[in-house]
Each structure stands twice: as C-alpha cells, then as structure tokens.
Amino acid sequence: MKRNVSVVRLIVATWSSGPPTSQPVSRLTHLSADLSVIWLRVPIQYGCCSCYCMCEFTQDSWKMNRYTLEERVFIVRTYWKTESIKSCQQQFLEKLGGRHPASKSSIWALLKKLETKGTLLNEHMGGRPKMSEETSQNVKDQLLASPKKSLRQLSQESGLSRSTCQHAAKKAKLHAYCISVVDELKQPDQVKRVAYCRWFQTLLKVNPGILDYTWFSDKAWFHLSGYVNSQNSRIWASENANVIHEEPPHSEKIGVWCGMSWRCIIGPIFFDATITTAAYMEIFNTFVNQLDDEELSNFQQDGATSHTLHDSMAGIQSFFGERIILKGLWPPRSPDLTPLDYFLWGYLKGRVY
Known about the structure:
Blueprint: E1 7-11, E2 27-31, E3 37-46, E4 49-58, H1 59-62, H2 69-82, H3 85-95, H4 104-117, H5 133-145, H6 151-158, H7 162-171, H8 189-206, E5 214-223, E6 253-260, E7 265-271, H9 277-288, E8 298-300, H10 305-308, H11 310-320, E9 324-325, H12 339-352
Parallel strand pairs: 5-8, 8-9
Antiparallel strand pairs: 1-4, 2-3, 3-4, 5-6, 6-7
Helix pairs in contact: 2-3, 5-7, 6-7, 9-11
C-alpha cells in the first residue's frame, strides 16, 4: 500500500561498532490516540553513514488509502444522508463488519477532496509524464544536426529540462561517446602514411615473420606529483587555518624509454633530463645489448633531432645497417602506427595514476 509522506525529518546517527539500538529495524515510535499521526523510525544507508530516517505519516495522507473506492463512496453518501459522524461510522461497521471505521478527520478529508477536486480516486503517485513524440523527435533532430552539442546547451536552447533531453536522447538510442584527441595531420602526412603502410605490407609479403623482430621504440614522460585543483581543494575547520599547498613551478617527472616487438618488450629504461645524442646512445646501447643476433632485424624510431644526428645514426647503423625505419620513411605525427603510443603508454599510465 502506497503512503504519502507529509513530513520527513532525517536524523543521522553514525556508529563504528554497532547501531545505537540493538535492533536496527523499522520501528513505530509514536502513535496518536485517534491514529491521526504516526512516526516510524526506518534504518537507511546515507553515504558512508548508517542513519535513521524519522518519517511522519498523517491521517490525510495515508489513512484514506486504506479504503477502496466503493468504501469511500459509501462513507460520503452515508454522511450526506445522516449528517452525523457517529451515524456514518456505525453504518460503516454494520455494512463492513471487522473493518475499522473511518475517523472524523478521514471523513472530512474525503468530503474536502470531493468538493475541491471532484473525485474520490487516488491522485497520481508520481512518475515521469509521458513524453510526446514531437518533443522526442525534436531533441533527436537537434542532436544529429549538432552532434557535439552538450545536453546543458541543448536544454538552454530548447527550453526543455536537462533530464528531459537526456531521456529523449536515450529513447532515440543516442549515446555520448568520448572523443579521442590525436595529433593534427598536415596535408602531406596523408600521402606519407599511405606510402609507409604499403611499404610495410610489401615487407610482410616477402617475409611474413618480420613483425617478430621489428622493434618499435618511443619515450614517454610520467609526472611524479598529482595535479591539485584549488577549486576542489578544501579543509574543514571552525576557523580559517590559512592552509597552503606548495608545489614546484615545474612538475617533477621521469622519462621512460621502451623497445617493443611482437615477441617482447625491452625496458623500461629511465632518464630524467632532455635526451641529447650522448644520452640517446646510452639508452640505445642498453637496449641493443639485450638482443640476440637474430633479433637485429628492423628498428623504428621517430624523427627527433637526437635520433637522426650523424653520431646517433652511425651507432644505430652499426647494428641494424639499412634496416632502420626513421624520418623520411616513417610518417610524422603518426603515433597510432606504433604499438607503444597506441597501447603501451596509455595502459601504463592508467595503472600508475
């Protein structure tokens, strides 16, 4: 049976070892003599706290719902005929023996409801009103016309509530998907990307196992301190403690270099400063010393200056010869073509942070 709660007072009681009473169950705490007011104590979970919700149910809001429509009609008709509360209650008992007769306040509430609303039926107990097809189609058309528009902006432009826009989008089977941010491609990049992919496809046809020993290399920076948003950083106190958060002007970070093939990953190799030619060759020698002769097949690197200077190229060619994928063959601004940028760095940063 549904009951309208006319007044709700929330009393939060937190405990560590157990509730303040031995029986944390719904419990009647107050009952007036004429059943006009009932207080119930109901245990609930409020965030991380265990609470009791004290709910007051009044006669007008819940007791009338005990009676069927036929019983309500009988009560009203009997009162109109007799114009007496006691006579109405007596005839109710005679007709429906065993049923508790309607109280004076319940009878007056039924009469008032009939006079003001013209019905004895229960009112609608809440729920979302049915959305018109026109509204649903209008929201769908606006989202398809401007797919990057937020629901907040759509709500402001259409005059509909945000929840209505969200419900209409769900009804139209439209979902909000995250946009991936990638490097902007320049005009010549498209041609270079296609040329590289065709070259690699040809290489695979000649030697299907070439991916086993093709090494892709890259570096990434991992910041050691978390970012502090001052708008969301608060401290609770009775007085302003003037607490400050100190952080260096430049976030501390550490560099990580890895070499990755279809078979395994070599690394991580750490560094903490800008990579010069000497620093890059030290990283490269650490990497290549872990390879067998049969693993010296193809080596990919980006076009960073420290990678392509004469001293660096001489050291790399002494191991890989002409089997180097670098600037010229490797398309710029194409991290999605390497497994490190496409998978490894995102996976590791997701685990670290």
